[in-house]
Amino acid sequence: MNATIRVGWRSSVGLTGDVLAALPVPLAFPLLVALYYDESPVPFLAAIAVSIAVGAAFRSVRDPAEDLGPREAFLAVAMIWFLVAAVGAIPFAVAGVGTVAHPVNAMFESMSGLTTTGATVLRDFSLHSRSVLMWRQVIQWLGGLGILILATAVLSEIGVGGAQLMESESQTQDVNKLTPKISRTAQLIWGIYFGLTGLAVAVYFLLGLAVDPQMGLYNAVAHAFTSVATAGFSPEPQSVGAFHPLIQWAVVPFMVIGSTSFVLIYFAINGEPMRLLKNEEFHFYLGAMGTLASVVALGLFLDPGATFGVEGTIRHAVFNVASIVTTTGYASTDYVEWAPAAKHVLFMGMFVGGMVGSTTCSIKSLRWLVALKSFKRNLFTAVHPEAVRPVRISGKPVDEGAIRDIYAYLLLSIVIFFLLTVVIVVDAERADLRVDEFEALGAAATTFLNIGPAFGDAGPYGTFATFPMTTRAVMIVLMWIGRIEIVPVLVLFTKAFWTS
Amino acid sequence: MTDRSDGLLSADLGIIARDIGSLLLMEAGLMSFSVAVALGFGEFHAALGFLIAGGVTAAIGGFANRRFADAPNPRMKHGMVIAAGGWLTVAAFGALPLFLAAWLTPPAVMDSFVPAAADAASWEPIAVGGTTTVSSLAYFRDPLHALFESMSGWTGSGLTMAIHEPSLPRAVQWWRSFIQWVGGVGVIVLTVSILSRPGSGSYALYQSEAREEKIHPSVVSTVRTVWKLVVGYTLLAFATLFAAVRASESAYAESLSVGETAWQALNHAMTGLTTGGFSVTDNSIATYNSALVEAALLPIMVLGAIAFPVHYVVLRDRRVRELVDDLQTRWLLLLFGAGIAVLSIQNVLSVPATAGAFSTGSFLPVSALSLDAAQTDAIRDSTFQWVSALSCTGFQSAPIGRWVAGAKVLVVGAMVLGGAAGSTVGGIKIVRGYTVARGIVWQFSRVFLPKNAVVTARIGDRTLDRETMEREFGEAAIVTLLWLLALAVGSLVLVNVAGPEFTYADALFEVASAQGNVGLSTGITGPSMPPLAEGMFLFNMWIGRLEIIPVLVFLRAGIWGLNP
User: Fold this and answer.
1) A329-340 confidence digits (pLDDT tens)
2) What are the residue boundaries of the structural domains of chain B, listed by start?
3) What count of other Cβ atoms lies within 10 Å of the Cβ of residue A493?
4) By three-state DSSP, how is residue A93 classified?
5) How far is A120 from chain B (nearest CA, A)?
6) Exposed, middle or buried, B60 (CB in 10 Å: 0-12/13-18/19+)?
């Protein structure tokens, strides 16, 4: 057995260095906000200094002869997501107010941001400066951008957990040369992402002028960042519930578009809208969202405790289901107070997720669609073993290897989710904290699947700070693993990755 | 390519009806035998019930069998439909004796079944025919309860509608144990003859077993060998239990007559060995409150969780090493040990927080290893319950409903996994869990290998090429995923319809118990449970026993027929 390390780790570290060295650009944004509102710029200056120093150090180890192959890409992805989150935690820790002064909480907030989760440990929003609150929004927007590039250029090329089934704009012939692919995809995606964000800022700001003075330019920018990134942080403790109903309705389409395949949006913009409209995954995604929203709306109508009126009932059902299914994590009302059945439907919605190739998290519609079609196929071949019948998505046959990848991904997700639930339950008991099992399940799903709020104390108007510190530390790791689709992290622990 | 028939009754339907008919004829035979048991105990009303039930079953089964006698031989595609339909039909007819006995026995006679020693004053009276009785037999006047009991018996689950088993007639107690015992053998036959065919989702699992460890080439001789093993083990278990109960010094055990002891030992031997879990005592095994009886049951449940081909090899070749060499048995024994340790730690730590969650009366006279009496009791209950859960038996020695959520969730894990494929356990089974785990690792490390790399994997002592390995993973993954989906949906439904006193962990536990054919209960299951939940459990037990795919094929055939 050849035990020498065959991974070109130098190029992975170098790429991580590139990303870290670029962090001062997004950090400059909250810095400007701090200067504008006359708040302390120190938290951001500290983070900028660290990112430049570490970035330079990492770049210096690069070996220009090595190119980025699948292994190197995995290693780089795992490192980038972890280290960017670590740098992102610096402003919270340096600012030193509220719960996030503690390093673990700062890391939780930053990881929750970068992974576009949206689970918060903040308790009292009024303690924090406007610039720190804006940094939470920026880091989520950044996380959304990162995942777009990862999903469209890296995971779909290497073929992780069925991601190879994604409709991509061109399939590269050689998976060992990922760098050109990444930069080309990035250019295409950036345009759409920036455009959508700008559009959201304009829509929110104009609506704010018209109906709700609370939605000023600051909030318009802050919410545009986190709705297109399907991320879910809000500088308002009441989330989007703080705004006029019209604005709540306006947020829904941006969450939905954020969870739609950006590659298909690219085609739609470039004169091929049918590729999006006839895509089966798109139908499944909208169908799941519509069905769940109808069930929740029905539940709220029947619930004597819920008094929202007709428009309010529909709005809250549509908004919160869309928020959960797209994995955004906003809330238009505190759904913790709803009847259990409605909460159970929301819980189920957590596992659906939007389309691959978007900023969405969770399992994603494509995987469920392929799995369900394959189950159906299996019932047919059970009776007719001699028949050959490929599973088809949007008319194209699906590779059997990809189907098995999806099975593996689903099973692994379920197992990790279950283990995390056990950790939360047992750790809460150890700390003598009353967390009922449903709250634990919700908290496990919402962090691992990167959604945001859960139920009980960790609800949309609550905080994750009530969980024991150990639980939060585990959640940090699982948000990280969940966001980069599990595999890039787990393969680091296999021998085959480092040697063979 | 298929035999299309334009008639109302296609050839497919004929084949299926004929084969299910012959299953019913066998069941009628079991009922006739039970008539003798009822008469032997002087329970004439119950005897009449069994007689009528047997007659009806024989008539319908005989008619179906005769009417379609000239149908062609069953083909592979019929196998799964016959298995799923057969289990359902047999369970439905198996409810008849319970239902008839309950209606034919007058309330006054029902009361006479209630043991004099029992603390019947605290039992809830049941209204029947203008009067009330405390005999649990009256519950079976509700056809849904009778069907539930029969399905729970035939699938080897052990969840029961009879709250107070001692107040049932002997014949009904016998029928419950008897169907679990026969149902257990039925599972092995199912395994060998149906599930070891392609497409069942379990094919890879059992095909491999059949190739390497097939007991005998033909189904008939396999059944004969399995019966020999089961009868032999049952007698052994009976003797052990009888001795243990006689030797036990607990107040309850000492109050039993020799005849009563033998009766209980026989019933518990039958349901323990086939990992069924029905009991004839009021609070399952907790009634004995005896560490000795629990200790005697442990090896019986473990035997039931080991694959029958392994038993055969061990006994024929006198090769005890096979227990370690066989992949499933090795893991099974490991999981028994590891699980007991983990569950014990969790429960010992939770002792201060949970009052009345464990058996009382320190079974060790002295405190050992600086554990106090309550803690050693927690370990004792953890041990028994873990073995009962992983072997999917369902004997209960402690009020699990009062355990902390962490402990419940651990036991759920055991019930979901279950014991070794090829035995009478439920759950997804060890070899499938192992294949899935190996497959996941393979599926992800595949990314780094060249497309044409030659790879082989070893599962147990079989060496698999890439294609076989991938196919086996695919089949195992489908069943596992469907199993978990059904569990998730079922538990969410249950937590909404069960009373507010039950938490989500309770609901998850109960559905895992039903679908894993285990029979442990947190207290949700009982005659007062919502009918929707009761009906759902029927489905859970049914799909759990047949490993899901055959039931789905059955339902699909019911809607679209067997032709493409």
Assistant:
1) 999 999 988 888
2) 8-205
3) 8
4) helix
5) 25
6) middle
Distance CA A150, CA A157 (A): 10
CB contact under 8 A, B504 and A441: yes
Longest dimension (CA), chain A: 74
The CA distance from A325 to the nearest CA of chain B, in Å, is: 18
Closest among A24, A60, A61 to A41, alpha carbons compared: A24
Residue by residue, DSSP assigns B196-225 as TSTTSS-HHHHHHHHHHH-S-SSHHHHHHH
Calculate the alpha carbon distances from A464 to A267, A424, B135 in Å. 40, 12, 52
Q: Which residues of A touch B482 (CB under 8 A)?
A: 375
Query: Tokens 């929110």 appear where?
Result: A204
CA B31, B33, B34, B37: dihedral to nearest 10 degrees? 170
Q: What angle do CA B197, B200, B205 make, to 5 degrees?
A: 70
CB contact under 8 A, A70 and B405: no
Q: What is the distance in angstroms between the Cα of A195 and the nearest Cα belonging to chain B? A: 35
pLDDT digits (tens, 9 = 90+) for A334-370: 998 888 889 999 999 999 999 988 898 889 999 999 9
Provide CB contacts within 8 A for A38, sequence distance 6+.
none
A213 — phi, psi (to 5°)?
-65, -20
CA–CA min distance A235, chain B (Å): 33
Q: Maximum distance among all alpha carbons in chain B?
A: 78
For residues A342-376, b (16+ Cβ closer than 10 Å) or e, as one string?
bbbbbbbbbbbbbbbbbbbbbbbbbbbbbbebbbe
Of B201, B406, B448, the CB nearest to A425: B406
The per-residue DSSP string of A160-197 comes to -TTGGGS--S---S-TT--HHHHHHHHHHHHHHHHHHH
Do residue B482 and residue A379 have CB atoms under 8 angstroms apart? no
**What is the reported pTM?**
0.90
Question: Residue B201 and residue A382: Cβ atoms within 8 Å?
Answer: yes
Distance CA A295, CA A315 (A): 13
Question: A494 to chain B: which residues are within 8 Å by CB?
Answer: 441, 444-445
Q: Which of A70, A348, A412 sits opposite B440 (nearest CB)?
A: A412
What span, in angstroms and rounded, lies between the C-alpha atoms of A234 and B377?
51
- For residues A43 and A109, the answer to whether their CB atoms sit within 8 Å is no
Question: Which residue's entry shows tokens 């007819």?
Answer: B93
Yes or no, beta carbons of A381 and B495 under 8 Å apart: no
Cβ separation A382–B449 shorter than 8 A: no
Residues B387, B306: Cα–Cα separation, whole Å? 12
Question: pLDDT value at position A172?
Answer: 47
- Interface touch B353/A159, C-beta < 8 Å: no
CB contact under 8 Å between A340 and B496, yes or no, is: yes
Chain A residues near residue B556 by CB distance under 8 angstroms? 379, 383
Per-residue pLDDT of chain B (564 residues; tens, 9 = 90+): 344 444 444 778 888 898 899 899 999 999 999 999 999 999 999 999 999 999 999 999 999 989 888 888 777 678 788 888 999 999 999 999 999 999 999 888 888 888 876 676 777 788 777 778 888 899 999 999 999 999 999 999 999 999 888 899 999 999 999 999 999 888 877 776 666 655 555 555 554 443 344 444 566 777 788 888 899 999 999 999 999 999 988 888 888 899 999 999 999 999 999 998 899 998 888 888 888 999 999 999 999 999 888 888 888 888 888 888 888 899 999 999 999 999 998 888 887 777 677 766 555 555 566 677 778 888 889 999 999 999 999 999 888 888 888 888 889 999 999 988 888 888 899 988 988 998 888 887 777 666 666 666 666 666 777 777 888 888 889 999 999 999 999 999 999 898 888 888 889 999 999 999 999 998 899 998 999 999 999 999 999 998 888 899 889 888 877 665
Give A101's DSSP letter: G
